[in-house]
Write a structure and sequence with these properties.
By secondary structure, the protein is of the alpha/beta class. It has helices spanning 8-17, 24-34, 52-60, 74-83, 110-122, 135-144, 154-158, 164-180, 196-199, 212-234; strands at residues 2-6, 38-42, 66-70, 87-90, 126-131, 148-152, 184-188, 205-210. The structure holds pyridoxine-5'-phosphate. Pyridoxine-5'-phosphate binds at residues 6, 8, 42, 69, 89, 91, 99-100, 130, 150, 188-191, 209-213.
């Protein structure tokens, strides 16, 4: 199973101060060095974290395949067609949400999704649909021609321990069903070291896309070193 690291929240830190650092491109290069298999970045319509120029640089200046997460809106589809990332993952997007809150309503937007999946596929981009673990939705993904689905693991990952077995069962059934339809199966959202054990019970997974928990742990893994570096630089002080 492969790991795609979502580096959006490196850009969140940068945008919070309007600086040029930390740079998601530098994060992607470190992810590659650590053995990650891909980089995921979400170009949101409101550009709250990742910017257009980040996508351009992530496409051209680092070695890992880029999975561009995006809403199915014309202006962003045009950017994808122009930049040709290896993969696109279509997600629902609401301006007020803190993060992607649910899977795509594939049944309601079937024709619009069909047309975008077709355009992106014609351009050689593997297109994935971010969906809940719902068998009818997976049938619709197959019918409109999507080669890949990403199962939304947020409900399972955020659930109370008592509620988890049922939600995990739904994910397992969905992965089996999608695989049976010939779809490639990815999964993502809310995955961390504590809940990963359950995720590893889901069959047929090709890639896990994980962002927030990795960026959060990276902050603490780097804290002692960052403080130590600053203290060392302060030794130069001569009064
Ligand atoms: N996959 C998709 C489709 C997402 O929208 C997100 C969040 O941007 C992720 C994976 C990563 O989720 P998290 O940051 O919770 O690991």
């Amino acid at each position: 199973m492969k790991l795609g690291v979502n580096i959006d929240h490196v850009a969140t830190l940068r945008q919070a101060r309007g600086t040029v650092y930390p740079d998601p491109l530098d994060a992607a290069i470190l992810c590659a060095r650590a053995g990650a298999h891909g980089i995921t970045a979400h170009l949101r319509e409101d550009r709250r974290h990742i910017q257009d120029d980040d996508i351009l640089r992530l496409r051209e200046l680092q070695s890992l395949p880029l999975n561009l997460e995006m809403a199915n809106v014309e202006s962003i589809v045009e950017i994808a067609l122009d930049l040709r990332p290896a993969e696109v993952c279509l997600v629902p997007e609401k301006r007020q949400e803190l993060t992607t809150e649910g899977g795509l309503d594939v049944l309601a937007h079937r024709e619009a999704l069909r047309s975008t999946v077709h355009c992106l596929s014609e351009a050689g981009i593997q297109t994935s649909l971010f969906v809940e673990a719902d068998l009818d939705v997976l049938d619709a993904c197959k019918e409109i021609g999507a080669p890949v689905v990403e199962l939304h693991t947020g409900a399972y990952c955020e659930a109370e321990p008592n509620d988890r077995p049922l939600l995990l069962e739904q994910l397992i059934r969905a992965a089996d069903h999608a695989h049976g339809l010939g779809l490639r199966v990815n999964a993502g959202h809310g995955i961390n070291l504590e809940n990963l054990g359950g995720i590893l019970c889901i069959p047929h997974l090709d890639t896990l896309n994980i962002g927030h928990s990795i960026i959060c742990r990276a902050v603490f893994h780097g804290m002692e070193r960052a403080v130590g570096e600053m203290l060392e630089a302060m030794q130069e002080y001569e009064g």
